What we know:
- It is a single chain.
- This protein has 301 residues and is of the alpha/beta class.
- The chain folds into two domains: 1-44, no CATH class; 47-298, Alpha/Beta hydrolase fold, catalytic domain (Rossmann fold).
- The chain has nine helices and nine strands.
- It has helices at 3-20, 29-39, 95-102, 124-140, 159-169, 200-203, 228-240, 258-263, 270-285; strands at residues 47-54, 62-68, 74-80, 107-111, 147-157, 188-194, 213-218, 245-250, 294-298.
- It has a nine-stranded mixed β-sheet, sandwiched between helices.
Amino acid sequence: MNHLSIHLANLLSIAQSSIMKPKSHPLIIWPLAWIAFLLCPKLNSVPKVEKNLSYGPHERQVMDVYWDSGYENAPIVFTIHGGGFKKGDKVYCNADMRKLYAGKGCIVVSPNYRLVGKGEPITKDDCALDAAMAVAYLQANAKRFGGDPKRILSTGYSAGGYISAWIAYRKNWDWPSYARHKPRKLNIVGWFGDSPFLPPDLISQVGPGDPPGFVLYGGKREHPATPASQGHDVQSALRKSKVWSKMVYVDFLGHVPAKRILFSPQTRDRETHQAYLQFLDMVCLGKGNPKAGELIEVAGR
């Protein structure tokens, strides 16, 4: 039970005892009882999950949604798996990731998407368009999960980092005829990439007024398709467009270091963790103004 729940439980207990013994607290009986009545539903909120929610006609066009029954206008975080566009699954969104985002009161969504090389003429941008369709679906149905359709954070690792950046920085949408929702704009408020694959044609889409970006790369053992130089390039593009950015460079780790350096309570780097929480406060909750343009270098252990 969190601190708010404990305080509400105490308040409810006082109100109940006051009602049973009206002479003991004559001036606060009904105010306390009324406040407890209004707030006690929060005490009964429970974590919920909907698995394999369909957002399109293909068997891979499904997603898992994690939320809390007490949410109202909660930010929405998309976590998009990698796998070189050829493999991978939404189960990549593990308990540590969900716990970090839930700690900020966020709905967490993990989509699958069609894969390249499975007997269909699928490209990496088809993969990205699938994930964008998932975002469009949640944007249109956010209230069902207690979400805010205007506060969506796009995150992903490796190939999923490419997809999440494509969703965050693409300006024009050409939705397929079978898309259930075809918004002119996806309401992305921030982007996070864990060793994201960022070719020049994607970085060139960054412009003024775009969502803030937070990137994390490994060092000498990073994948050759996702060198840390891509992180410096996208940060330079964001800075040039006067868009907030931050980069974390982990010299002693290789590809996709976020699960170890950010999400795992046992192995996370404190400075990286605090910087990311500040980023979430800024883009998801509209709180704080953390310093932009920094490079956090995580030393070997």
